[in-house]
Amino acid sequence: MRVTVIGTGYVGLVCGVGLADFGLNVTCVDCNQQRISALQRGEMPIYEIGLEEILKRCVKNHRLKFSTDLKTAIQQAAVIIVAVGTPEGANGKPDLSQIETVAQSLASSIQEYKVIVVKSTVPLGTTRRLNDLIKKQQKRKVKFDIVYNPEFLREGTAIEDFMRPNRVVIGSDSKEATRVVKEIYRPLYIIETPFIVTTPEAAEMIKYASNTFLATKITFINEVANLCEKIGADVHHVAYALGLDKRIGSMFLHPGPGFGGSCFPKDVRALVEAGKELNSPQRLAEIVLQINQAQSEIVVAKIDRALQGLDQKRIGVLGLSFKPNTDDVRESPSLAICKKLVENHAIIQAYDPVAVPNSRKVLSGEGVIFCENAYDAVTKVDGLVIATEWNEFRNIDLIKVKSLMKNPVVIDTRNIFEPQKMKKIGFQYFGQGR
Ligand SMILES: NC(=O)c1ccc[n+]([C@@H]2O[C@H](COP(=O)([O-])OP(=O)(O)OC[C@H]3O[C@@H](n4cnc5c(N)ncnc54)[C@H](O)[C@@H]3O)[C@@H](O)[C@H]2O)c1
Predict the structure, then answer these.
(1) What span, in angstroms and rounded, lies between the C-alpha atoms of 134 and 218?
(2) b/e for 81-112, b at 16 or more Cβ within 10 A?
(3) Which of 175, 198, 221 is the last residue of a domain?
(4) Number of neighbours of residue 183 by Cβ within 10 angstroms
(5) Which residue lies with its CA nearest to atom 7 of ligand 1?
(6) 259 CA from centroid of ligand 1 (Å)
(7) What local confidence, expressed as pLDDT, does residue 364 receive?
(8) CATH number, domain at 255?
(9) Residues lower than pLDDT 50 in the chain
(10) Active site includes 58?
(11) Domain for residue 228, yes or no?
């Protein structure tokens, strides 16, 4: 089967590479010529563990190619997967302009029956609206079916998540389209992946409800951690005991500087906006957003207290991406903290294993010095902030770090170090909720 994937970002590229690895013939299309040229040269536009190796293997086996020619790619494929961006718009609602442009191209290019699979995260009701939009714009009425198939991959483990998902959700009104989508995921039957076939509306809701629930869990443990600090309890003991209750589960109970990334903040906001529009307020989601925003301020206040003021303080920041193993800095809590520290006249020495190029685009200007490695970032600083939990930082030579710092003060927003060990080395150590 020939499949075209539109959009070669974190989702589209992983999906295209994953399906090619499943044995399908895949064309990945993007309107960004630079990105496609780089991919054609074998250069990766994003950092994702394992992606390059599989991509190169599939290209070599002629199962994967890259193009900017959307019309041809649409016409040659039986299935068209839409994975373009739906970033947050000015009003808190997702900006659907990328997906609407794709809908126009689909309307003008389809010449025979196609299955259109929307993978982008879209507001409730969008799949049906896209169906109507394409039909309205079609000059020749050619049949197609549209399916909503949300993506649940996590950046940093995207390949593994795509190849071994917890579930596949198919939101469809068409038996034929459902059959075709099941067919493209056939290798997942062997590993007994559950398939949920439902309506497009329920599938859209599943995606928003999943992300909002996970964001709520993170927010809950952050609030518990803040309270633990006041009473001298270790939040990890609390989280461990909580997680052993099967009704609660242990995942996403790790305190930190708040959730970020390209999905959670925008998806929770989208659910809140949908609730307002449909007169069914999503009050829990609303408060989750407020608490999360305040969390980075709580962290900055903690740094301020630990360093006895921020003015002209030199601060090392380790980790810039919103989480480890990705170069994605969209809504990264680390960048939010860096911005606030600079606003308070601190000087930042920042390092990240892969996210410096993307961070430069956001944190340009005065106040931030990007460093070549972690040791340069801690040299002569008044304090060190651990902002993203890269493994590289867990294994850092702490004796060397202490000798390089002006003042051995560590604010560990991800709890990657043991408080007792840090104190023994001679650090003044501040964790989250312990
Ligand atoms: N990033 C994640 O972890 C993740 C996980 C699950 C779901 N999602 C959702 O998946 C969607 C894509 O996310 P992403 O992070 O991959 O986005 P992205 O911004 O990284 O990539 C989008 C790509 O689409 C391309 N594009 C835009 N308009 C186009 C057009 N008209 N024709 C061809 N290409 C076009 C862009 O050039 C870009 O390369 C979003 O809706 C997002 O919410 C993302």
Answers:
(1) 39
(2) bbbbbbebeeeebbebebbeebbebbbebbee
(3) 198
(4) 13
(5) 151
(6) 20
(7) 76
(8) 3.40.50.720
(9) none
(10) no
(11) no
The pair of structure tokens assigned to 434 is 């312990």
Q: Give the integer Cα–Cα distance in Å for 144 and 252.
A: 40
Distances (CA, A) of 279 to 98, 272, 283, 357: 27, 10, 12, 42
The answer to whether 394 and 422 are in contact (CB under 8 A) is no
> 3-class DSSP state for residue 195?
strand
- Asked, for residue 67, whether it belongs to a domain, the answer is yes
Find out whether the beta carbon of 103 lies less than 6 Å from any atom of ligand 1. Answer: no
The answer on 113 and 251 residing in a single domain is: no
Ligand 1 centroid to Cα of residue 301, in Å, is 35
CB 337 within 8 Å of CB 299: yes
Please name the residue that has the structure tokens 């599989």. 54
The answer as to whether 231 is a domain residue is: no
Q: What pLDDT score was predicted for residue 429? A: 98
Please check whether residues 27 and 112 belong to one and the same domain.
Answer: yes
Owner of token pair 């920042």: 350
- How many domains does one find in the chain? 2
Domain hosting residue 123, numbered range: 2-198
Separation CA 84–CA 82 (nearest Å): 6
Q: How far is the CA of 119 from the centre of ligand 1 (A)?
A: 9
- pLDDT score for 92: 86
Residue 228 Cα to ligand 1 midpoint, Å, equals 39
**Sequence-separated (6 or more) residues with CB below 8 Å from residue 322:** 260, 261, 262, 328, 329, 330, 331, 332, 333, 334, 388
Exposure string over 15-42, b if 16+ CB within 10 A, otherwise e: bbbbbbbbebbbbbbbbeeebbeebeee
- If asked whether residues 47 and 146 sit together in one domain, one would say yes
Residue indicated by tokens 């860096």: 338
In a domain, 207, yes or no: no
Question: Letter for the amino acid at 124?
Answer: L
Of 39, 154, 262, 322, the residue with max ligand 1 atoms within 8 A of its CB, to mutate for a pocket test, comes to 262
- Ligand 1 site, residue 13, Cβ cutoff 6 A: no
Query: Does ligand 1 lie within 6 Å of residue 218's CB atom?
Result: no
Pocket lining: 121 vs ligand 1, CB cutoff 6 Å: yes
Residue nearest to atom 17 of ligand 1 (CA): 85
Domain limit, last residue, from 198, 230, 252: 198
> Rounded to whole angstroms, how far apart are CA atoms 124 and 203?
9
**Cβ(11) – ligand 1 distance below 6 Å:** yes
Q: Residue 248 C-alpha to ligand 1 middle, in angstroms?
A: 32
